[in-house]
């Protein structure tokens, strides 16, 4: 996602801060601040689409799960042939043709059809894994089939991890997913939230899968039961039987590297995820501005610091799925009544920051003040962009500034 707006609003302020501000900081502050800048760089600059390997037998619900996470019919459900893209990467793109998620297609997994492509499964994987590796492996088993023989599948999975470890020195976490739990008894209890009896059977199936996976793969990251069933008509969702998909999305976030978080939030459109990432951004930005503000700063440097706040606001807006442009940022600043200095610096930021003299004279800031102001802006941005609350609430949050949480 490296379009111009992204560079201008997310990356450029960080780059300027690194270049112009960091060298001026006393070493004790410098160290702390650099750590936080790196955190933001991981989120903003290194940002890329998350990559998964989704493993499971035919009909396990791999494509359906992808659609459930996207809330859109992006993957073909119940595809008739197993031949397309076997062993290759499938890239999901947004309307602007940017890659937003990549899935290593392991169709044909465990089907022993090695002759079809004159390539063994291992050869297919070696090829697919030459350039990229999955950040995480999702291992799907139908709830009704958890006691079928999955040992072979687990062996395959381990082989896949081994190749990745050897090639990329990375061991992707494995997440076991019990799919299609709605199919378990009692059959009349089809729609979530499920009744007691169904829940007990779901737990039973999950426990079974957990025991099995743990036995062969003790380091498995977690087991989650889900129902991913959704139906679309003409691109619109007409039926939604999803259960525990948000929990899965949340769990996956913890397994994914920070560089994929921004995209993950946008793909899944999950508000809880978006808020969590936004708060991470806000905490780093507050620590940076607070650290810098802890010592006297020449006025000429203020825009560099304001730039961090702007980068933060742009980050929150981006996470919410908004297009990054001047309009949405200006709208927000206007709505919360941020001071002209902030808005001014922001408008100029993309041009030459070094040439700007900050228009608000005598703007004395202290470390705490800078940190609380930044955190106030973050809270307001979360309410405005993510929670989509009325403007006056965002304004309140900005005015009632408090210290950022320490954890
Ligand atoms: N009831 C129910 N049906 C599901 C669920 N998930 C998937 N299905 C159905 O199961 C069938 C197979 O789902 P797919 O998502 O195509 O499975 P897949 O793993 O991608 O299959 P292949 O691509 O052929 O390997 C489809 O008819 C889905 O509608 C679920 O959670 N509940
Ligand atoms: Mg499929």
Automatic annotation (TrEMBL):
What organism is recorded for this protein? Salicibibacter cibi
**Could you tell me the keywords of this UniProt record?**
Membrane, Transmembrane, Transmembrane helix
State the name under which the record lists this protein.
50S ribosome-binding GTPase
Checking InterPro entries in the record gives: GTP-bd, P-loop_NTPase
Listed GO MF terms = GTP binding
Q: What PANTHER family does the record tag this protein with? A: TRNA MODIFICATION GTPASE GTPBP3, TRNA MODIFICATION GTPASE GTPBP3, MITOCHONDRIAL
**Any one GO cellular component localisation term in the record:** cytoplasm
Where in the numbering of this chain does the G domain appear? 52-161
Q: Which domain of life is it from?
A: Bacteria
Q: Which residues form a coiled coil?
A: none
Q: Does the keyword Membrane apply?
A: yes
- Membrane-spanning ranges: 302-320, 332-350, 362-386
Gene3D superfamilies assigned to the protein according to its UniProt record, in alphabetical order:
P-loop containing nucleotide triphosphate hydrolases
In the record, biological process GO terms are: tRNA methylation; tRNA wobble uridine modification
Q: Which Pfam families match?
A: MMR_HSR1 (PF01926)
């Amino acid at each position: 996602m490296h379009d111009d707006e992204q560079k201008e609003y997310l990356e450029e302020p960080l780059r300027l801060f690194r270049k112009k501000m960091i060298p001026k900081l006393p070493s004790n502050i410098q160290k702390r601040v650099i750590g936080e800048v790196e955190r933001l760089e991981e989120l903003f600059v290194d940002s890329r689409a998350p990559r998964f390997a989704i493993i499971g037998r035919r009909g396990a619900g791999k494509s359906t799960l992808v659609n459930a996470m996207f809330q859109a019919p992006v993957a073909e459900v119940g595809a008739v042939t197993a031949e397309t893209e076997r062993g290759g990467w499938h890239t999901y793109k947004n309307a602007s043709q940017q890659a937003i998620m990549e899935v290593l297609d392991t169709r044909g997994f465990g089907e022993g059809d090695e002759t079809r492509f004159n390539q063994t499964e291992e050869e297919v994987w070696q090829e697919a894994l030459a350039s990229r590796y999955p950040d995480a492996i999702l291992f799907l088993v139908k709830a009704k089939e958890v006691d079928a023989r999955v040992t072979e599948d687990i062996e395959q999975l381990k082989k896949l991890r081994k190749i990745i470890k050897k090639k990329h020195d990375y061991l992707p976490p494995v997440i076991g997913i019990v799919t299609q739990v709605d199919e378990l008894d009692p059959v009349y209890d089809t729609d979530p939230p499920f009744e007691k009896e169904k829940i007990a059977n779901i737990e039973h199936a999950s426990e079974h899968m957990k025991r099995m996976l743990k036995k062969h793969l003790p380091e498995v990251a977690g087991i989650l039961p889900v129902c991913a069933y959704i139906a679309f008509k003409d691109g619109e969702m007409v039926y939604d039987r999803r259960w525990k998909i948000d929990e899965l999305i949340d769990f996956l976030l913890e397994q994914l590297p920070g560089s994929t978080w921004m995209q993950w939030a946008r793909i899944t459109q999950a508000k809880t995820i978006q808020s969590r990432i936004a708060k991470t951004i806000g905490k780093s930005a507050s620590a940076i501005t607070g650290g810098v503000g802890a010592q006297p700063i020449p006025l000429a440097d203020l825009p560099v610091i304001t730039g961090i706040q702007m980068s933060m606001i742009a980050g929150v807006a981006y996470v919410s799925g908004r297009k990054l442009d001047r309009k949405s940022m200006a709208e927000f600043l206007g709505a919360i009544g941020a001071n002209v200095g902030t808005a001014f610096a922001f408008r100029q930021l993309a041009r030459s920051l070094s040439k700007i003299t900050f228009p608000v004279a005598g703007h004395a800031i202290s470390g705490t003040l800078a940190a609380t102001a930044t955190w106030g802006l973050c809270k307001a941005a979360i309410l405005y962009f993510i929670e989509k609350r009325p403007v006056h609430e965002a304004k309140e949050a900005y005015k009632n500034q408090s210290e950022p949480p320490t954890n």
